[in-house]
Amino acid sequence: MSKLGEPLNIGGVAVKNNVWMAPLAGYTDFAFRKQCYKFGAGLCFTEMVSAKGLHFRSEATAALLHTGEGEKQTAAQLFGSDPAILREACESEYLKDFPVVDLNMGCPMPKVVKNGEGSALLEDFPKAAAVVSACKRSGKAVTVKFRIGVKRGEPLAAEFAKLCEDAGADALTVHGRPREAIYAGEPDFEQIAAAKRAVSIPVIANGGIFSRQDAEAMLDKTGADGVMIARAAMTSPHIFAEILGGEEEWDRRAVIEEQIADMLPFYGERFTVVQMRKMTAFYLHGMRGAAKHKARLFTCNSIAALREALCDIFPA
């Protein structure tokens, strides 16, 4: 059985450990990923990026692929359904700094599904296979993130995992809930285990991991090769240190200030303020007076006001 902290090889790319940060739209930008890496994450992923957006040279889409100084090994997550456009994205200048491409076949959001993208590909095996094969021909290491099925009681994790492997995928991340559950309920360990048994490539288990105990249980119950953390990192990027047995405490204010300093030159003041109000609100989870502090945060309309609030929330 795999143990937390073990290195992995993904299509020839050496990854330092098997505790990964999930791609989260609206959150996993370069400044947040820096914090996850600092606390020990083995691999982080960009926010999900539209292959069509890159095809049409959207500046907003391209901005999602911005990397920070020293960020040498991050995976770019793409979504789409056209094999040719996805391969074009993989081969484009936009992805030159990304050794790993992750294909989103699990997003449950209706606006994505209705376009035949994300978890819609769970209902179109031939197209899913064509997408994986096309991206693999780009020469990148290719991973696929998907859910155990569409509806409760109708699992297809093992079958879909095998399809992806046969199409050329180098690793898989399996979210242990069906699409219709979104994020509700416990992950289905047996379906993740079935996917793991069906393939010979690494399988990363995702869903419901909020502590080291959760991560150990996930590996024990599924036989997976690693774990992927999602919502738990939004309230504490320090969770990677907790899971890997690192430092016990973290300085919330220092993390927030560093994110602000990293974001400001790239995004400008307005976006940085809006984003860091949101991120700071998450980081206050579990703190005494969090509701009052959050109310104040969302009145901040400048970096100066945000930093003044931080001084009051986290007095020296």
UniProtKB/TrEMBL annotation:
It catalyses: a 5,6-dihydrouridine in tRNA + NADP(+) = a uridine in tRNA + NADPH + H(+); a 5,6-dihydrouridine in tRNA + NAD(+) = a uridine in tRNA + NADH + H(+). FMN binds at residues 77, 145, 175, 206-208, 230-231. Keywords: Flavoprotein, FMN, NADP, Nucleotide-binding, Oxidoreductase, RNA-binding, tRNA processing, tRNA-binding. Gene3D superfamilies: Aldolase class I, Putative flavin oxidoreducatase, domain 2. The keyword RNA-binding applies. Its EC number is 1.3.1.-. One of its GO terms (molecular function) is tRNA dihydrouridine synthase activity. The active site is at residue 107. It holds the Pfam family Dus. Residues 21-303 form the DUS-like FMN-binding domain. InterPro entries: Aldolase_TIM, DUS-like_FMN-bd, DUS_fam, tRNA-dHydroUridine_Synthase_C, tRNA_hU_synthase_CS. Its cofactor is FMN. It is an enzyme of class 1 (oxidoreductase). The keyword Ribosomal protein does not apply. Catalyzes the synthesis of 5,6-dihydrouridine (D), a modified base found in the D-loop of most tRNAs, via the reduction of the C5-C6 double bond in target uridines. Belongs to the dus family. This is tRNA-dihydrouridine synthase. It comes from Candidatus Borkfalkia faecavium.
